[in-house]
Design goal:
Elements lengths: L1 H21 L6 H4 L2 E2 L2 E2 L5 H22 L8 H20 L15 H25 L9 H8 L15
Antiparallel strand pairs: 1-2
Helix pairs in contact: 1-3, 1-5, 3-4, 4-5
């Protein structure tokens, strides 16, 4: 549960930062974009930052769902495969593009490269490993909505509880 909460908090913070950038904020932008010879390689627009912000918020929601927040009935496979996808996306970010970002970047003499090596790659590795760990673990009993709904009588009892069981 601590892994889900840690990832959710990190992802929500990153999502808020991308919303801030989408609506004109400039703080941290110099260290957030790769550059070559002092020239930024990427020039994201408002829509680009919004897409990333919404995606990160969705990833955070997936982690919170794994903990039982919010109480929704999503198919179990969706949450599990979603966490695998989140882990895979951040693992790809750790490996990088073999040029500007990731462990195997070749351009290493920029402000972005400095922060990428010391902060972004380790953070992505933590997010990836935590997501994989959660994808392979069952949701905690407190996070299952069926148990609570059965106790309230909203869902029918299982066949076993009704005495309709066969060996």
């Amino acid at each position: 549960m601590i892994y889900a909460l840690l990832n959710a908090l990190i992802l929500l913070a990153l999502s808020l930062l991308h919303f801030y950038w989408a609506f004109g904020g400039r703080w941290g932008m110099n260290a957030a974009l790769p550059e070559r010879d002092g020239v930024k390689v990427l020039h994201p627009h408002m829509v680009d930052s919004l897409i990333v912000a919404i995606g990160l918020a969705g990833f955070a929601a997936l982690h919170l769902y794994h903990m039982g927040w919010p109480r929704m009935n999503l198919p179990g496979w969706l949450a599990q495969y979603g966490l695998w996808a989140v882990g895979g996306i951040f693992l790809l970010r750790v490996v990088g593009d073999f040029r500007y970002v990731g462990l195997f970047k070749r351009i290493r003499n920029s402000q972005f490269a400095y922060w990428d090596t010391r902060l972004y790659v380790p953070l992505c590795l933590i997010l990836s490993l935590n997501a994989f760990l959660l994808a392979t673990s069952p949701r905690p009993l407190s996070a299952t909505t069926d148990r609570l709904e059965r106790e309230r009588g909203d869902l029918p009892k299982s066949n076993y509880a009704q005495g309709n069981y066969h060996y």
